[in-house]
Amino acid sequence: MASSLSLANHDASLQNKIDMSNARKRTTVDVAVMRDFVYNGHNEWLRKEKIIEVLSKDPVFSKEGRDFMTRTEKYNRGLRMINRVSELENSLGWTKEESRLAMHSLDEALPISLHLTAFEPVFLAQASPSLLSTYAPLAAKLGIFGCYLQTELGHGSNVSALETTATYIPETREFEIHSPTLTSSKWWIGALGKTATHGVVQAKLLLPDKKSNLKDMGPHLFFMQLRSLETHKLMPGIIAGDIGPKAFAGFAATDNGFARFDHVRISKENMLSKFAQVSDKGEYIKPPHAKISYGGMLYIRSGMVTSAGWLIARAATISIRYATVRRQGNKGPDGLEFQVITYPSLYSRLMPILARAYVYIEMGRALSRSFNSMSARLATGDTSLLAELHATTSGLKVLCTTASVADAESARRSMGGHGYSVFSGIGRAYADLVPSVTFEGENFVLDQQAARAALKAYRTIFASGKAVTSFDPASLPPSTSYLRLLITSDSQPPLLTSASWLDAETLIVLLEWRAAALVRDFTTSAASEKTDMWNVDPTIYQRVSKAATEAFVAGQVREMFKTVDANNGLGAKEKQVLKKLYLLFLLTTIETSLSDFLAFGLLRMPDFISSGVTDPTRSLRRAISALCKEILPEAIGLTDALGLSDWELDSALAPYDGAAYQALWDRAQTEPLNQEEIPNAYEESIKPMLQRGQKLAKVGAKL
Amino acid sequence: MASSLSLANHDASLQNKIDMSNARKRTTVDVAVMRDFVYNGHNEWLRKEKIIEVLSKDPVFSKEGRDFMTRTEKYNRGLRMINRVSELENSLGWTKEESRLAMHSLDEALPISLHLTAFEPVFLAQASPSLLSTYAPLAAKLGIFGCYLQTELGHGSNVSALETTATYIPETREFEIHSPTLTSSKWWIGALGKTATHGVVQAKLLLPDKKSNLKDMGPHLFFMQLRSLETHKLMPGIIAGDIGPKAFAGFAATDNGFARFDHVRISKENMLSKFAQVSDKGEYIKPPHAKISYGGMLYIRSGMVTSAGWLIARAATISIRYATVRRQGNKGPDGLEFQVITYPSLYSRLMPILARAYVYIEMGRALSRSFNSMSARLATGDTSLLAELHATTSGLKVLCTTASVADAESARRSMGGHGYSVFSGIGRAYADLVPSVTFEGENFVLDQQAARAALKAYRTIFASGKAVTSFDPASLPPSTSYLRLLITSDSQPPLLTSASWLDAETLIVLLEWRAAALVRDFTTSAASEKTDMWNVDPTIYQRVSKAATEAFVAGQVREMFKTVDANNGLGAKEKQVLKKLYLLFLLTTIETSLSDFLAFGLLRMPDFISSGVTDPTRSLRRAISALCKEILPEAIGLTDALGLSDWELDSALAPYDGAAYQALWDRAQTEPLNQEEIPNAYEESIKPMLQRGQKLAKVGAKL
């Protein structure tokens, strides 16, 4: 077939390139300056660029053909890549952080993530000094490969119901790890299926009392060897394997696994005992804080904001590039159809996504800083920052995972038919990120926690029904700073005019008022009296959680405006455009919850109402549309500034040079079905069917 | 490994079965009676049951291992199934309709769909009698396999910009079909990649005028042979192949293809000339109605409501069954955790999905009847029903595809972590249905058309700014019946109390008022003056389209209440439960557009406001939650009544008997990675990595 392809006419690709090049020329922001801002400094960008250069040139990391691979092939390729990064770490002298950056840049959900973000941090934070001295260096150099065994076939969100047991045997100073039932099988554990040699197992600690009855001390963590370091065979008494493919072909290279333990003995030292401990006799030594082991979970959750930001960045880059070169619809004076990005139906969808990418990446960074402060204090036993971070990350995890998954799908759909091709590149990213809405805290459960935290904060202040006059609003942490609005009893939500939609501080205060109004209203509902919210209508706590979290995020955006103003590296133009992005983010945040703002009377627009306008939401929508149009000429520059290379994006619809149609054509030629003109199905199925049909049609004709 | 599995404890599965059995006992509706209703009569149900029995017992249709297949294997399996159904059609004497039902029951997006729903209907409706006499019997018996070539690499929604040409050559009475550019390549054409022998090609008809200049007559349809019936090789001058995998691994068994034509000559008879024709000399003979060829598109769109209904039915059945046996969270007096379906966060999500399944299936049937009436008239040249069906299906296609895709994903997420396993069965269905939001009319474009139709209807009545007094509201077609509310100038939206939420007619009128208010408001906006809406903010026409379509749907639901009342086959209990489902459907329809109702002052609740309630939406939400709880005990019966067998559902999480955990465990054991204890990746990647890591850790220790 290849020979006949000379028929291809390259005009369209030429136009693609012209369109992309013109879009770049229209951009007025300095892309390099903006990129340095996105990457938090020029050196960070250079470091990343250098790593990407190494990876993109190495054949081990080639993405060719990966869309045609079986899961086993994808798994094998994943392990090859992990091994190669580990080699490069040593040969090129990468720091641990650089090697992590490399692993995360591979555009594939890999088992190493579980080692790096679940196993190692928990192990380092909670293992005893003696365990650490032996295994920490091995974990750091991948001399062992770890996983984190929490979820069971029958148990997820409710950790206290886990069935796996760890029974202490004082006689031998051992724990016996056991899976008593089918439903106690560990399940979904990333890297457990075929890769991991070791794991941290969450199990119910059972201690014998004086009468030798076993007492359940709740879930604790145990370090276990799962596979032989000589043969990779499972250790005696352990059954384990892969749980099978995931929906949407997501996480194909990760061996999420199951495991069952049949009375497996491990040494007492294998309990992660930095906090809770068991004496040789089997007495329980309490941890200083009941929730001290939450650190690992918070680490994973706070990292999810950054991942969400980068998924959105990827979706924005691909969809905006494609919409720039795709022409469809009416013809302009040049006789060409318009670029689809010039249509409001496209830019009104894509500019808010771009804005969200910028905000989330920045917010992820701030959250990492908060996590590090909390973590440093936690290491010294100081748990004072834990509650605040827990409240913040619960709501944020819901907000960011929901938004990023929705944005990725919205961006994919904006590409019309071609967006459904695997070569568009967004589907893959979506498939890998979509489980984030159900793992690491199911979003409904987290919404309950976030709402509860808001309620608690409210009640602390308004214990007697009205504000304690001596209460200092400045003492409120960022997560509930919006409650200050309720303390002065005469304060009112702002009055709005159409100019208000261009004033960031007004929008931020509006978002804070909405949180204050919803939380206050929530306290008057019967639901707030329940000690848990399992039996509460979810719309109640979801609205509260969303409102409180978006008020927190609005506060973060307030800080971003200040940071931009204070940044000497940015020029006036870049500052102006960044502020437009932040403003758009705030406006669309309000738009998606309009029913709340209307229901609580927060769109106070006396001028509009007196002028006889029926629909009070129209001026907001008009402001969003106008702002999107203003940002539009900068869109390609702003996506370039996200710094994602063609190798990273791996999208036929979004090559840097714009030549999407040629790229899509070229990719299609590599499809395995095209390697032979006559498919195998012909002899087996098609031919007999056609021949029978022809015979029957003839018989029919004769009748 | 298999030997050690004796460790498995079956208690949990036993509990699964007990939970399912108890849920069945709680159901008070007669499942068989309800099922006959869903299937539109006992005979229809029997016919389907008989077909499913044949299919589910035939090894060709076994679903074992399909989740592990490559795309090529899935394609081959698909063709085997098509061939087998065609064999069964003949050997068992199935009618054409029964064989279609069989094809559609295979739970796989197959190339035959394009033959049955795109190629054949268009061919039958528009081919000349001579073409029909030769090819219609062959198409009916699969002696030829057809596809429908419209979309091009560079052109989708805007059919008038298609680049493929059909140039008439009077000398030889031939058309020359040609693809002048890369972007004119036909693309996405289902069954074209490797299967189809023939196709209907949409191409720009070029006719020579007297000076032999070519005149563009716009897109027309041509019947072409693509592959040899002897060898299956492509006909001379044609390049074709498969366009590659789709996102989310969807449509894997369908060979969506590309094709390019290099000056391919076909006989003049091959033009589909029932309506537009070309004389031997090359003169154009106009069709009687410009849009007469829209029939095929409307057929596909009206079928999409039914498909959406059955996708939702599948999602509802799987998620409700799993939520019935999954126990998680707080413990009840029996010491067991509660079934998750008892939590509002689950049943408030799942009962509305179940209600939507019932409404859409019923509505799809009504729409098919409308299509058949329209089609019968169209065949006689009467186009009077075309505009109404076009207006209705545009908005409905958007509404139903968006809702069904969202419901499938919402149901999948309701299953928590396990919902992300491919074995859950919902991901597959989602992956195959999600392109429906971008194909057969991109949803934004259709929203524009629906909004325009609403506008046109409004202006016809209110030409001079106020209603023509002589206008008879009864003359309004169902699609714009809501406009009657504006004709009597003193009519007002209903006043609401909490009892209103239980009154279907009030809810229907409320939905109609919202459409009337939005359409009226739309006419006052500048956007309504534009001849096309490409340059209009999408939120404007999307809101209008949604409002108008939901008013139409509300009208359909009004008819459903009447149908249920008149149905003698249903008992009082079934009638009552069906009405609750319809009521819930109406309530949630309002809930999802609350911002519209609030912005236009349609939630007129004087009692609430005077009693000092802050949030006027609370009573609606409370009514929804209460109604969901009322329907809950019937949920398993209502999903059973949807009549989907275990073979059809193919879900490890939703076996009829409830034993989800055992099924999930069993499926995982069949994963190819589990067939050997040591993965191939061990020698290649894992071992070198571990050994290097151990060495480096040792070196580190010595330093």
TrEMBL record, chains A, B:
Subcellular location: Peroxisome
Record keywords: FAD, Fatty acid metabolism, Flavoprotein, Lipid metabolism, Oxidoreductase, Peroxisome
Annotated Acyl-CoA oxidase C-alpha1 domain residues: 294-454
Any one GO biological process: fatty acid beta-oxidation using acyl-CoA oxidase
InterPro entries for the chain: ACOX_C_alpha1, Acyl-CoA_ox_N, Acyl-CoA_Oxase/DH_mid-dom_sf, Acyl-CoA_oxidase, Acyl-CoA_oxidase_C, AcylCo_DH-like_C, AcylCoA_DH/ox_N_sf, AcylCoA_DH/oxidase_NM_dom_sf
UniProt domain Acyl-CoA oxidase C-terminal: residue ranges: 504-691
Binding site for FAD: T151, G190
Catalytic activity: a 2,3-saturated acyl-CoA + O2 = a (2E)-enoyl-CoA + H2O2
Sequence ranges assigned to domain Acyl-coenzyme A oxidase N-terminal in this UniProt record: 31-144
Pfam families: ACOX, ACOX_C_alpha1, Acyl-CoA_ox_N
Cofactor(s) this protein requires: FAD
Pathway in which this enzyme or protein is active: Lipid metabolism; peroxisomal fatty acid beta-oxidation
Homology family: Belongs to the acyl-CoA oxidase family.
Name of this protein: Acyl-coenzyme A oxidase
UniProt organism field: Dendrothele bispora (strain CBS 962.96)
Taxonomic lineage: Eukaryota, Fungi, Dikarya, Basidiomycota, Agaricomycotina
